[in-house]
DNA sequence: CTGTTAGCGCGTTCAT
DNA sequence: ATGAACGCGCTAACAG
């Protein structure tokens, strides 16, 4: 509980240093910018001493104001609660470090309003570029960015109508990889669980890839509950099988898409209830005990990302107890800490590289590269754990 | 793959707006600062229109340069990988939002060098204050901050020799709460597992509180492995019991502190090996089967925070399989997602409030409050799960 | 090699 | 009610 010293005494400016060193501001500026070749060793020493004595530190704001660039880039993140985001961030930070950029991290916390505000703020602070992991968002919100505005690169998802570089997972390949894995391991009923994807390209692609594989192999049908309103399957509507009749017995595989809006707990409850019915039905219909040496008759859940997987796992654990995985298998895109702990199979994204590449792209744009908008799709890696084996 | 439009055309300045509106810069400035009372409705309309037409956005850098305050505060975070950090961040962001501050998030990623660099950077950007969740760090690194420098408030840990406000968990109470819970549930051998704590006040306090409770109830001894070098028990050295002889049988409770340096995988291996020996010994010595209706003879692990708990859980799961919790109980300070999923008992920190209060404190300092350095200790909440019951 | 001058975009007296 | 002029801290010509 020592008394605190008085407030900041006002920092030294370049003028102070110049006076202290008995010279002009220009020389100080030159010194700061490493133009040593244009300074006599003697003057240089005096400057060094003066800086030391005054504990001088150049004001980056003023600096940026003058030269028109402040080495600041914005990182607009939808959700730091998602391990994916933090991992991407690490790669991005490393790249910034290497390229002499300073990232301003903005956390929208899943609120579109926040996203808008931060974008505005970044603009007024004149960041040189923005890398954005947008939440489902209309192009208009990103207006100040991309095409006409400041350089931008999108991470994980692209935004309709917004021309900009983007880097993320090869979603099609990843979803196919996961689906094939489940099929290869004998599952004949697979539920793909995903958040509302009308607005989010990565979710769309994952779901579409899953659906296509399932249609090629057997049947697919959509869930009625979950999404708000019309759902996202366009004019084609629900296809293939109609009701939840069991088809596994005859050797055909059945795919099902369930939309879970994690932001709407009532909708989550409804979705999970539907899932429960399917799981119970599978348990009844299957004449083999749940610990049979095959996966036929055991339902597999394919979570489109870690938050969904966590939601599912928590629910299943609460409903079926610690041994829930003997009743249902879980596979998730994203590879959070707890996956290893619970033996859940995952598809790990190259998160670090995604972040790194994103910043590299942005840096090129900032330096004036004018090529067409690029897409960088990186492959995911399947990590097989006990959950999907038998 | 549309061709990208040409680079940014240069944003409008206040001068442009003044010209467009057919007036002087001053009026524009007044408008921007809400001094409407000093503007004729007619002029005001013209300004509004001009701003709209030019899509003008004031340059915060220049603004800050002029008035000497930029509403920026730095948030120096040791490890965004730790859920604790993200949760604190959310509270802090909410407070910033409410107080009109813009947080600059800096992620040191557990590297002291990074911490130093970011602090430097924040200083040169003239942030008005800093809230810092330091990694074990010498006071000198924080020199530019606190006392003589810019206002600062510490989160979670205090730094020796640095006078500044601090807000965090009531570590003593939390550790006592956890220890008592274990004792009350019949455990007679408890291992407190913690990262090296010579530099980290919160870890020190937790360990000390644990040790004191154990000494009052029975015995306590230190682990030989783990920490780098001398360990952290000061001149008192190891006390109480010497070797890992079983004492549970005679009704006495035994406490043990194990230091695990998560940054040093070899040390982690050694520490875990010692733990394994103890667990195996307990399993042998206990004449009751591991599923006996009592916890006597079952070892309890008390993790000082979530990263430690995760490390322990992963190891135990790998060694004893999915049913590891029947052999050993786990209690952790911090309440990560996976705790609920795996049924681990925790002590949840009031993270959101910690972040919120930290920013409030900082704001007061920025506004010139001069009281003595304050400590704000918030209570933790015990969340009992299956792991520590029987 | 070194100092002088002129802004960068904005806020703020101080006149009008 | 409104605008001209000066300066924030710094860099970039342009002289000397």
What does this structure look like?
Two copies of one chain form a homodimer. With 390 residues, chain A is α/β, with parallel strands linked by helices. The first copy, chain A, has three domains: 14-58, no CATH class; 71-169 and 352-378, Response regulator (Rossmann fold), CATH 3.40.50; 171-349 and 381-388, Response regulator (Rossmann fold), CATH 3.40.50.2300. Chain A has twelve helices and 13 strands. Chain A has helices at residues 14-21, 25-32, 41-54, 60-67, 83-99, 112-124, 171-184, 201-217, 265-285, 306-320, 337-342, 351-366, and strands at residues 72-77, 102-107, 129-133, 152-155, 165-169, 189-194, 219-222, 254-259, 299-303, 328-333, 345-348, 375-378, 381-383. The longest helix of chain A has 21 residues, at 265-285. Chain A is elongated and about 90 Å long. Chains A and B meet through helix 4, helix 5, strand 2, helix 6 and helix 10 of A and helix 4, helix 5, strand 2, helix 6 and helix 10 of B. Chain A binds a DNA duplex (16 and 16 nucleotides) through helix 2 and helix 4.
Query: Which regions of chain A contain 5 or more consecutive residues with pLDDT less than 50?
Result: 1-6, 226-249
Number of helices of chain A: 12
Distance between the termini of chain A: 62 Å
What percent of residues of chain A adopt helix (DSSP H or I)? 40-55%
Quaternary arrangement of the chains shown?
Answer: homodimer
Keywords (chains A, B): DNA-binding, Transcription, Transcription regulation
Protein name (chains A, B): Transcriptional regulator, LacI family
Organism (chains A, B): Paraburkholderia terricola
GO molecular function (chains A, B): DNA-binding transcription factor activity; transcription cis-regulatory region binding
């Amino acid at each position: 509980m020592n008394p605190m010293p008085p407030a900041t005494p006002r920092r030294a400016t370049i003028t102070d240093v110049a006076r202290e060193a008995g010279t002009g501001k220009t020389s100080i500026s030159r010194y700061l910018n490493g133009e040593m070749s244009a300074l006599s060793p003697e003057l240089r020493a005096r400057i060094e001493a003066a800086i030391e004595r005054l504990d001088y530190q150049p004001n980056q704001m003023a600096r940026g104001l003058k030269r028109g660039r402040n080495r600041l880039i914005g990182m607009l993140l939808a959700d730091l609660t998602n391990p994916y985001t933090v991992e991407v961030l690490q790669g991005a930070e490393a790249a910034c470090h290497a390229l002499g950029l300073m990232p301003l991290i903005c956390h929208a916390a899943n609120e579109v309003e926040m996203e808008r505000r931060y974008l505005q703020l970044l603009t007024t602070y004149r960041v040189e570029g923005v890398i954005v992991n947008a939440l489902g968002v209309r192009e208009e919100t990103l207006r100040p960015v991309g095409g006409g505005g400041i350089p931008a690169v999108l991470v994980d998802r692209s935004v309709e109508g917004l021309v900009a570089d983007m880097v993320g997972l090869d979603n099609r390949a990843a979803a196919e990889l996961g689906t094939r894995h489940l099929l290869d391991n004998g599952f004949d009923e697979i539920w793909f669980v995903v958040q509302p994807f009308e607005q989010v390209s990565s979710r769309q692609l994952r779901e579409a890839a899953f659906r296509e594989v399932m249609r090629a192999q057997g049947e697919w049908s959509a869930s009625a509950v979950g999404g708000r309103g019309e759902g996202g399957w366009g004019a084609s509507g629900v296809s293939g099988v109609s009701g939840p009749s069991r088809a596994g017995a005859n050797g055909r595989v059945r795919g099902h898409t369930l939309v879970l809006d994690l932001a709407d707990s009532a909708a989550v409850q409804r979705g999970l209830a539907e899932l429960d019915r399917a799981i119970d039905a599978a348990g009844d219909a299957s004449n083999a005990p749940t610990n049979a040496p095959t996966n036929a008759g055991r339902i597999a859940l394919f979570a489109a990302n870690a938050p969904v997987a966590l939601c599912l796992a928590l629910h299943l654990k609460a409903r079926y107890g610690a041994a829930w995985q003997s009743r249902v298998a879980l596979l998730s895109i994203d590879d959070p800490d707890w996956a290893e702990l619970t033996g859940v199979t995952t598809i790990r994204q190259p998160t670090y590289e995604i972040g790194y590449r994103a910043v590299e792209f942005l840096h090129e744009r900032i330096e004036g590269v004018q090529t067409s908008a690029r897409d960088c799709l990186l492959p995911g890696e399947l990590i097989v754990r006990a959950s999907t084996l038998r």
